[in-house]
Amino acid sequence: MTAAPDATPRAASPVAFLFAAWFVALSASLAVLFIGEVLGQTPCNLCWFQRAFMFPLAVILGVAAWRADLSIWRYAAPLAVLGGAVALYHSLLYAGIVPAPIVPCTASGPSCTDDAMLILGLPIPLLSLLTFGAILVLLIQLRRISI
After folding, report:
1. pLDDT tens digit sequence for 24-44
2. Nearest alpha-carbon partner for 85 in 128, 55, 115, 118
3. 83: which residues sit within 8 A by CB, 6+ positions away?
4. Which end of the chain is more exposed for a tag (fewer CB within 10 A), N or C?
5. How far, in Å, are 135, 137, 142 from residue 101 at the CA level?
6. What pTM was estimated for this model as a whole?
7. Average pLDDT of span 109-116
8. Neighbouring-strand partners of residue 118
9. CA distance 135 to 113
10. C-alpha to C-alpha distance for 37 and 107, rounded to whole angstroms
11. What are the residue ranges of helices labelled H in the chain?
């Protein structure tokens, strides 16, 4: 006679949330490197600031995932919040809600409003905002279930 499978749902592992946050940060970092280095799209100043917050997230979340350091949310969440704030401002500029024009980095460089800066029909500033938001949600879940 075999035992009946356990019907109670299991709580998600905190390490799973940590690995998911790292995967999102790593994917975003590799994507912007591909856009900049392979496709040759020069990032604007606000994109550089967003990268300044995303690249360290990919590194520290990766190290934390490798070491199963569940307290990393204390250090990673401020980076995600600050990067998300820059991305929010950038998205508001893109949408025209904040009355300042987005200008290309150089006279011959790309602009964030250019069609070449859309991925899956979404502008890069909005994708950045969604990415920082996803990382922050995963870190909040990590904190919630690891305490």
Report:
1. 999 999 998 998 888 777 778
2. 128
3. 49, 50, 52, 53, 54, 57, 128, 132
4. N
5. 29, 31, 38
6. 0.83
7. 60
8. 123
9. 25
10. 19
11. 14-33, 45-67, 73-95, 124-146
CB 129 within 8 A of CB 83: no
CB contact set of 5 (below 8 Å; sequence gap of 6+) = none
For residues 66-82, b (16+ Cβ closer than 10 Å) or e, as one string?
eeeebebbeebbebbee
Q: Give CA 71 to chain center in angstroms.
A: 19
- Residue 145 and residue 86 in contact, taking contact as beta carbons nearer than 8 Å: no
Give dist(CA 40, CA 33) in Å, integer: 10
pLDDT at 35: 83
pLDDT at position 62 is 95
Joined together, the tokens standing for residue 74 give: 């204390």
